[in-house]
Amino acid sequence: MNSKFSMARLTTEPRIVTSLADLLIETVANGGSVSFMHPLSVEMATAFWESSLAAADCGKRVILGVFDENLLIGTVTLLLDSPPNQPHRAEIAKLMTRTSHRRQGVGRALMQAAERLAIDCCRTLLTLDTAEEDGAAGLYEELGFQKAGVIPDFALKPRGGLTGTIIYWKRIEK
Questions:
Q1: What contacts 174, CB < 8 A, 6 or more positions away?
Q2: Handedness of CA 76, 81, 83, 86 (dihedral sign)
Q3: Is 38 within the bounds of a domain?
Q4: pLDDT in tens for each of the 174 residues of the chain?
Q5: DSSP 64
Q6: Would you say residue 95 lies in a domain?
Q7: Structural domain of residue 102, as residue ranges?
């Protein structure tokens, strides 16, 4: 990751919510399969991030962000709120990088930081999923994630049409 970029845990602040909503809208508009359809309204994106950040405030997840000066250029969420029979597991969600900052190591740095956080939280297994078409499968495999399988026609792409979802897992330890 570029040395001029900085990373931080994100908190419920109006400017952070606005930045996250803007990043989510951009991601969806550019085909990112992150649970939303295009066009994504500011209100829906804002409500999603307000809820997510409230869950982070309660310790149920950690949301990391990377900044280029004051511009939020990437984010990832580490979901920690697991069922009682899965206290060893965490899930990676909503890895997004601004189109203007892709291929600069932002996603990789976010994933590596999320993995370190999961280890610090005594997790030994990470899971995630990504779209079969146009997802980040290559990055996840480079980072040591193992493909568990593909579920065909799992989700709609942001602009319509079905795509499969690839399920990944990775054992982690100190």
A1: 119
A2: positive
A3: yes
A4: 888 999 999 999 999 999 999 999 999 999 999 999 999 999 999 999 999 999 999 999 999 999 999 999 999 999 999 999 999 999 999 999 999 999 999 999 999 999 999 999 999 999 999 999 988 999 999 999 999 999 999 999 999 999 999 999 999 997
A5: E
A6: yes
A7: 5-123
Residues in the chain, total: 174
The CA radius of gyration of the chain, in Å to the nearest whole number, is 15
Please report whether residue 134 resides in a domain.
Answer: no
Q: What CATH number does residue 46 fall under?
A: 3.40.630.30
Task: Please tell me the distance from the alpha carbon of residue 49 to that of residue 54, in angstroms, as a whole number.
Answer: 8
Domain assignment present for residue 169? The answer is: no
Hey, what are 132's tokens? 């079969």
Global pTM value: 0.97
Domains in the chain, number: 1
